[in-house]
Description:
alpha/beta; two-stranded antiparallel sheet
Amino acid sequence: MMSRKTQTLLAIAVIAGLVGYRMTRPAADADAPNAVKPVAEETAVTSKPLALGNLQFQPCSLSSSFSKDSMEAQCTTFEVPEDRANPAGRKIALNIAWLAPEKEGDLQPDPLFFLAGGPGQSAVDSFQQMEPAFKELRKHRNVILVDQRGTGKSNLLACESTPEDVSTPDAYGAGAARCAEALSKKADLRFYTTTEAVADLDAVRTAIGAAQINLYGVSYGTRVAQQYAMRHPQQTRSIVLDSSVPNSLQLGNIFARNLDDALALQFAQCSNVASCKDKLGDPRAELDALLAKLRAQPVTVSYRDATSGEQREGQLTAETVAGLVRMYAYMPAAAALLPKLIHEAGAGRYENLMALTQMLQSDMKDSMAMGMQLSVICSEDGDSMIANASDEGTVLGNQMAQGLAAMCKAWPKGSAPADFHQPLATQVPALVLAGEFDPVTPPRYGEEVVKHLPNGRLFVLRGQGHAVLGAGCMPKLFAQFVEKADAKPLDGACLDKLNYVPPFTSFNGWEP
Length: 512
């Protein structure tokens, strides 16, 4: 059995890697319907506020659930109408953090806006775990974090989840209806879409006095970046799309097939190595057998809670295993453990798999801005949530698509421009990044995006998963790109040093 320390480190590594999917834990929402407070933890200050354009900022500390350290910043809020057709109506106080360079001698006039993933992630909360990749860029350029409306403390739209919310499509729909009814007391859920968020970003750009901005988006944030560049090309100096979602793509049931394709590549790291295959067998065949067994009869497992060290008992189902496999697949360094975990469970030793599943569920519980996510997906992609017969044999099957379809039936829907799903075709310089093993936004998505961008360039990072900006020398190339706003001369040879992570053949690690 794995030690508690090993379990904890592996689970943290996985969750910290899910920048494009994982939603940081929301704080308790005590806001009145028409009043929204800042998300960042403000420090006691006596210094004079700093101005950026027309906005006044106060010193604050940004915290992260994955670091004991805090990051010093400047914070403010900026009011925008919830419904721009009714400017006298309810307002949203967008939460904004400003990270200024330590040295202002050669400060560049065009800041970089960080666009978080999800949809549903808070930019302010999530930036700290990615900050090391921005160190070089931050030497000469301001970084602006705006919590997209409905996330963080920009009028957070979070749903309460209960066990019955995740059992059947009907239960999904009933849970969404309850959530919509509760959130409608403080928000018109039709106005929390990507299009509204793009208008917010441009309002912030104007308020801080920036003629042009650079955009870095990860996962869903790449949709926001593309939509901004489409609507405001003259104000967009450059875009970086990390794990990109093509404008032309409707989310629909893309998850099942993409995950299976990524698992085939990741599991090949074991099945193509004789020593690993001899010890662990065929990981995919063993996973299919395990899922079939658990679908027929879930098992009750006694396991040690990796956080408290106490013995607990819980039920292991096919759905929980599929969810764990999906989360681990985001980060191949952690997915290297999957063949061993699956092999152990196939032999009836479920303890480690159960402990890691419960740890992941505990950390993710109630941590997604589900209301904002539904406002985006149901307004922009709802018609594509259909079951595919060809996906029945996949790890995820059609459960996710069917559940989302049921929720969208109950959710108020906004509108999108007629050209919303047209490919972004612009002269704006673009750097497009993809991970070879990405289970959500595979490299072919990056290829689709970049073929419409004459000043764009795609880098596919060997052996990497989802959200790849921090891998290898990518931070250096990122800073060089934003500095010159030109991807063509970048020397990507340094990325050749990225290596595959060997699969674990025991809980002590991989073969020497």
